[in-house]
């Protein structure tokens, strides 16, 4: 009788060890896949940031008290990086013309 209870106990321990290994392995695989996915996202974001969208112009309007010269350094930096090729300065009168 003691022998039979002992064998059931041993079988239960073996089954629990198998499930423990399976769960540990699954958890490890999930962590590795998660790390790989996290490392891929910044690369995709960087690739999209490096693209130049030249289909739409960018308009910069300086704020109150600014002048055409206040944006010269920003325009020069954009031209150096190849992000801008042309600058058009429009002077609008108080009447809108």
From TrEMBL:
It comes from the Bacteria. InterPro entries: AB_hydrolase_fold, DUF915_hydro-like. The chain crosses the membrane at residues 21-38. Pfam families: DUF915. Keywords: Membrane, Transmembrane, Transmembrane helix. This is LabJ. It comes from Latilactobacillus sakei.
